[in-house]
Amino acid sequence: MALYAFDGTLDDDRNTGTDEPSIAKDTNVWKFYSAYDANTRSQGISNVYMPGVGTRFGAIGLVVGATFGAGWLDRINAAYDAAARSSSPTPPSGSSVSSTWWRRLGWPILASCSAS
């Protein structure tokens, strides 16, 4: 099962280091993603980690992303594109996709699904 992990607002734990203090500061989403990815890559499963809103476009992205959640739709679209690229026309029997939403990012997704 592929994992699409969305981290929280202002959270991006890629390239944070492997020493003990750096690992202690990692988010739970990053820890879960890292452990899951390490155990599934050998099976040919592609997983996706999406940093939280407010982590791109410098100071402007920080303010607009952290304040208004701007950028969440771009992350959803990128994860969808990754899923579309990695899926076959007929997925194996019993296969599924799992998403991990964290903090503020989950609410716009749920609201969008409810409005449909």
Give an overview of the whole structure.
With 116 residues, the chain is mainly alpha-helical. It has one domain. Helices cover 47% and strands 10% of the residues. The protein contains five helices and three strands. A three-stranded parallel beta sheet has the order 2-1-3, sandwiched between helices. It is flat. The C terminus is likely disordered.
Strand content: 5-15%
Overall shape: it is flat
Element-level helix/strand string = EHHEHHEH
Going by helix content, strand content and strand pairing, the class is mainly alpha
Distance between the termini: 26 Å
Strand order of the largest sheet: 2-1-3
H/I helix tally:
5
- Please report the total strand number as a whole number: 3
Mean pLDDT level? 74
The main pleated sheet reads as: 3 strands, parallel
Low-confidence segments, given as residue ranges, are 100-116
Task: Summarize this structure briefly.
By secondary structure, this protein is mainly α. Helices cover 47% and strands 10% of the residues.
Produce the secondary structure layout.
Blueprint: E1 2-6, H1 20-25, H2 28-40, E2 48-50, H3 58-68, H4 72-86, E3 97-100, H5 106-115
Parallel strand pairs: 1-2, 1-3
Give a quick set of tags describing it.
116 residues; mainly alpha; 5 helices; 10% strand
